[in-house]
Write a structure and sequence with these properties.
The protein has 490 residues and is of the alpha/beta class. The protein is 54% helix and 12% strand. β8 and β9 form a beta hairpin. The longest helix is centred in the N-terminal third of the chain and has 28 residues. The N terminus is likely disordered. Keywords: Cell membrane, Glycosyltransferase, Membrane, Transferase, Transmembrane, Transmembrane helix.
C-alpha cells in the first residue's frame, strides 16, 4: 500500500500566513463552511429563470422572428441574388459543393441517430465483481473545490476495500494543497495525497498517479468535479462485462450551471455532445475522447502505452495538452474498444467568462488537430479485429469539419460584405433549424424550458467563437494550458 501523505517539498510562501490557523479546530470550521455552501448536484436537471435569463432567451427568439420577417419581405431579392450566382461558374460550383456538404452532414447525422437508438448503458455489476480501482485526481490552482471532489469520491456507493483514491497537487500557487490536507484530515486512509515539487502539467500529475496506482482499472477525475453516488460503479462495470473494453467515457454535466449564462448554455450543449454523439460512437466501440472530467482505463492498456504517452511530442515539442484524447487514441490503436456510460454522471465547473471559455476551446481544438493526425496513422490499418468502418467514418467526419473551416470563413466574410442582410437572415434561420434537434433532445430527456438555451448558445458560438477552429489549426504547435492561472496583481 502506498504511503498516505507526501508533504515534501515545503509549502509555497503564499501559505505562510495560514500556518497560524492550521489547527484541527480551524480545519473543521472551514470544512463546515464549505459544506454549507456546497452546490446541489441535481441542479443540472432543474430550471429557474431570472429576468436577465428571460431577456436573453426572448432576445434570441426576437432575432429569429426578425430573420423570418426579413426572408418574407426580401424573398424576391434573395431569389434574384441566388439566380445571379447560379449563372456564374464560380457560383454554380459553390452551390454544388455546399449541397454535397449538406447531404454529407445530414447523412452522417442520420447514421449517428441510427446508432443512438441501438445504444444501451451497461448496468452496474454486483459488488463482488467490481474490479479494484484506483482513482486519480490531479489538481492545480483548484482551491477548496478539490476538497468537495475528494469527498464525493469517498461517498460513492463503491466497496471501500476496492477503492484507492490518489490526489496529486501539481505545484499549485493557491491554497489547493491546504484543502487537500483538510480532506486527508477528515477522510483518513481513504485518501492519499501527494505534491509535485513544481508545476509540471496535468499529464505529469496523472503519470505519477498511474505509477502509484495498484488497481485493475484507473479512473481519472478532474479536481473541479463532483461524481454522483453510483457513478464509479457504473463507470467501471463495462470492464467486467466486455473483455475488449479498454476505456470508458463518463457523462459530463455542468456543475456551476446556475451561476452564469455561459455554463447554463453549455450544460444543454453537453447533453447532446455526450448523450447523443458519444452514445452513437460507443455502439461502434470508438468513442474518440474520454473526457478529463471523468474517464476509466484498463490498467494493462495504460501501462502498454505509458512511456509513449508521457514522452509524446508534436512538431518536436513536448505535448502538454490533450492528454485525454491522446490516451484514448493510444488505447484504440491497441485494438481495444472505447465505450460511453450514460449512467456515470460527473458534474464539472465550466468557465463563466468569455476570456476563459475561448482559451478552453482553443486548447481542445489544438488537441483535436494533433490527435486527428495521430489517429490517421492507424485508423486505416488493421488496428483491431472486426469492423473498422465505423471509427474510420468518425475520423473522416473530423477531417471534414477541419478542412472546410477556412473556405467557410472566407465565404462568410464575402457574403457579409456583399450581401449582409442575406447572410444574417440565412445564418439565423439555419441556426433555428439545426439547433432544434439538440433542443428537442434535451427537452425530452430533462427540461423543456432549459432546452431553449441551445438556441442562444448557437448564436453566441456562431458569431463569437467561429474563429476558434481556424486559429487552433494555425497554432496547433503552441503549448500551454491557457486556463487555471491565478489573476496577476497590477
Amino acid at each position: 500500500m502506498i504511503s498516505n501523505v507526501d508533504l515534501s517539498p515545503a509549502q509555497p510562501k503564499v501559505f505562510k500566513d495560514q500556518k497560524k490557523t492550521n489547527s484541527k479546530k480551524a480545519l473543521h470550521q472551514k470544512a463546515k463552511t464549505v459544506r454549507e455552501n456546497n452546490t446541489n448536484t441535481s441542479d443540472y436537471k432543474k430550471a429557474s429563470f431570472t429576468k436577465r435569463h428571460l431577456f436573453i432567451i426572448a432576445g434570441t427568439f426576437l432575432l429569429f422572428i426578425a430573420a423570418a420577417l426579413s426572408f418574407y419581405f426580401f424573398h424576391a431579392d434573395f431569389r434574384e441574388i441566388n439566380l445571379s450566382r447560379r449563372n456564374t461558374l464560380g457560383g454554380s460550383v459553390l452551390l454544388i459543393i455546399a449541397g454535397l456538404l449538406l447531404l454529407f452532414r445530414l447523412g452522417f447525422l442520420t447514421y449517428l441517430a441510427r446508432l443512438f437508438f441501438k445504444y444501451k448503458p451497461i448496468n452496474s455489476v454486483p459488488d463482488a465483481q467490481l474490479p479494484f480501482s484506483t482513482i486519480i485526481v490531479p489538481a492545480y490552482n483548484e482551491g477548496k473545490q478539490v476538497y468537495e471532489t475528494l469527498k464525493s469520491l469517498v461517498n460513492s456507493d463503491f466497496p471501500a476495500e476496492k477503492l484507492q483514491i490518489i490526489a496529486i497537487d501539481d505545484g499549485s500557487k493557491d491554497d489547493t494543497w491546504y484543502w487537500m490536507k483538510l480532506a486527508k484530515e477528515e477522510l483518513g486512509t481513504r485518501v492519499s495525497i501527494y505534491q509535485q515539487p513544481h508545476n509540471q502539467g496535468k499529464r505529469h500529475a496523472l503519470y505519477r498517479g498511474f505509477n502509484l496506482g495498484t488497481g485493475e482499472v484507473f479512473v481519472t477525475v478532474d479536481s473541479d468535479s463532483i461524481v454522483e453516488t453510483d457513478t464509479l460503479r457504473n463507470l467501471v462495470s463495462p470492464f467486467v462485462t466486455n473483455k475488449n473494453c479498454g476505456a470508458v467515457a463518463g457523462n459530463v454535466r455542468v456543475l456551476n450551471n446556475q451561476k452564469a449564462i455561459i455554463p447554463r448554455m453549455l450544460n444543454v450543449s453537453f447533453v447532446f455532445s455526450f448523450e447523443f454523439i458519444r452514445s452513437a460512437q460507443s455502439v461502434l466501440g470508438s468513442v474518440l475522447c474520454t473526457p478529463g472530467a471523468l474517464a476509466a482505463y484498463r490498467a494493462t492498456a495504460v501501462k502498454n502505452c505509458l512511456p509513449q504517452w508521457i514522452n509524446q511530442t508534436f512538431m518536436g515539442k513536448p505535448t502538454d495538452i490533450g492528454e485525454d484524447r491522446a490516451m484514448t487514441n493510444m488505447i484504440l490503436s491497441q485494438g481495444f474498444h472505447v465505450l460511453f456510460q450514460r449512467n456515470a454522471y460527473v458534474l464539472t465547473n465550466i468557465p463563466e467568462k468569455f476570456s476563459s471559455l475561448h482559451k478552453m476551446f482553443t486548447r481542445w481544438e489544438r488537441s483535436n488537430v494533433r490527435e486527428n493526425l495521430m489517429m490517421s496513422k492507424f485508423a486505416f490499418k488493421t488496428f483491431r479485429t472486426g469492423s473498422k468502418s465505423g471509427p474510420r467514418l468518425l475520423l473522416l467526419n473530423q477531417w471534414m469539419n477541419m478542412l472546410t473551416t477556412y473556405p467557410a470563413i472566407i465565404i462568410m466574410f464575402i457574403l457579409l460584405i456583399a450581401h449582409p442582410v442575406l447572410f444574417l437572415t440565412s445564418t439565423l434561420l439555419s441556426i433555428l433549424i439545426f439547433s432544434s434537434l439538440p433542443a428537442f433532445f434535451y427537452a425530452k430527456k430533462y427540461n423543456i424550458a432549459e432546452s431553449f438555451w441551445i438556441y442562444s448558445y448557437s448564436i453566441f458560438y456562431t458569431f463569437g467563437l467561429f474563429w476558434i477552429t481556424p486559429y487552433a489549426m494555425a497554432t496547433a504547435s503552441k503549448r500551454g494550458w491557457l486556463t487555471r492561472e491565478l489573476p496577476q496583481k497590477k
